[in-house]
Amino acid sequence: MLTIGKVAARAQVSADSIRFYEREGLLSPAQKSESGYRLYTDEAIRRLNFIKHAQQCGFSLAEIRELLELKGHDRACCNDVYRVAVEKKLQLEAKIKALKTMSQALNRLIEVCSRDTKPLDECPILAALESSIARETIRSRGAAKRRPEAHS
Amino acid sequence: MTVKIEAFYTPGCSKCAQAKETLKSIVEKLGDERITWRDVNVLEEIDYAVELGVLSPPAIAIDGALVFHALPSAEKFTRELLKRLEQSVRDDAQNPARKK
């Protein structure tokens, strides 16, 4: 049996992380000593490695819990895990797409800047952000005004 | 105008395959040549799937827009198809030039 400190050292995580995973239902000690210390088997180290790798692939704790449940489910099969992985990939690709759009918006702002030492009042990036905020406000107010008309 | 159905699926998903066949048979029963069906493997066309907002296959897009985030019931799917076909007839009548 391993103490929480030993498990933490072998899995290269902190003892606090292990307690956190326990609160999140991802890991539990095999037993507790008479004095109430958590005791683990090697299975805990395998489980912690699984959690770490899944986090590196972008899985949230809730999704990792789902994967661990699948892992322990007799009737689950490879396809169930495959489905979760495909869904995660789609989510990541959607995030990448959104980030690219943001990056392109920044490109447009960077392009208008001449990088000289003008005062901030004349900063084209801040001005562009203000005008786009203003445009958004006008657009949303306009949409709010149009909405009741659409129903009449 | 044709009604273009795209069924996004994950290969190996037996539930997807079964439900997809049910929906496909509805299209066949309607026997309408104005309906086209395309199976889309999300892994082969991930950019397209992401563009349409597919996050959890199976999902159904109609005329290039995601309509069902999950496979719909046979009734719901039939209702949507009939609605689209009626709309298509109206549009063709209004503008014969767009008829393909």
Summarize the structure.
The complex is a heterodimer of chains A (152) and B (100). By secondary structure, chain A is mainly alpha-helical. Chain A is built from six helices and three strands, in the order E-H-H-E-E-H-H-H-H.
- Counting H and I runs of at least 4 residues, what is the number of helices of chain A? 6
Q: Any idea of the CATH class of chain B?
A: Alpha Beta
SSE-based structural type of chain A: mainly alpha
What overall geometry of chain B do the principal axes of the alpha carbons give? globular
SS strand fraction of chain B: 15-25%
- Catalogue the unreliable spans of chain A: 148-152
Describe this structure in words.
The complex is a heterodimer of chains A (152) and B (100). Chain A is mainly alpha-helical. Among the domains of chain A are: 2-57, Multidrug-efflux Transporter Regulator, Chain: A, Domain 2 (Orthogonal Bundle), CATH 1.10.1660.10; 113-152. Chain A has helices spanning 4-11, 15-23, 42-56, 61-71, 78-111, 124-151, and strands spanning 2-3, 31-32, 38-40. A 3-stranded antiparallel β-sheet of chain A has the order 1-3-2. In chain A, α1 crosses α3. The longest helix of chain A is centred in the middle third of the chain and has 34 residues, at 78-111. Chain B has a single domain, classed as Glutaredoxin. Chain B is built from 3 helices and 4 strands; from the N terminus they run βαβαββα. In chain B, strands 2-1-3-4 form a 4-stranded mixed β-sheet, sandwiched between helices. In chain B, α1 links the parallel β1 (3-9) and β2. Chain B is globular, with a radius of gyration of 14 Å. The A-B interface holds A 78-79, 82-83, 86-87, 89-91, 93-94, 97 and B 10, 12-14, 42-43, 46-47, 49-51, 53-57.
